[in-house]
């Protein structure tokens, strides 16, 4: 998978995250549970596709940035 395809997956993940977050937090939007669940499922699918392309650790770094590695080191 090319770098542009990985960037596209990251963008899709971010868009799904933002849509789900808005559905949970925006007072003007009342989203059904199914809508929020679908956003989360799509985020999971994007993450899995990215993991297949660049590996789990790199995918976490791309999506979560430094937070991914920092949180894991604190847990272990």
Report on the architecture of this protein:
The structure is a single chain. The protein is mainly alpha-helical and 76 residues long. It has one domain. 84% of the residues lie in helices and 0% in strands. α1 runs antiparallel to α2 and α3 packs across α4. The radius of gyration is 14 Å and the shape is elongated. The mean pLDDT is 80.
Question: Which short descriptors sum up this protein?
Answer:
mainly alpha, elongated, 76 residues, 84% helix
Short note summarizing the structure:
This protein has one domain (3-75).
Which structural class do the helices and strands define?
mainly alpha
**Share in helix:** over 70%
Question: Rg from C-alpha positions?
Answer: 14 Å
What is the average per-residue confidence, as pLDDT, rounded to a whole number?
80
Low-confidence stretches: none
Overall 3D shape: elongated
User: In percent, how much strand structure appears in the residues?
Assistant: under 5%
Order of helices and strands: HHHH
- Per DSSP E runs of 2 or more residues, the count of β-strands stands at 0
Major sheet characteristics: none
Query: What count of domains describes the coordinates?
Result: 1
**N/C terminus separation:** 31 Å
Total helical segments? 4
Oligomer: single chain
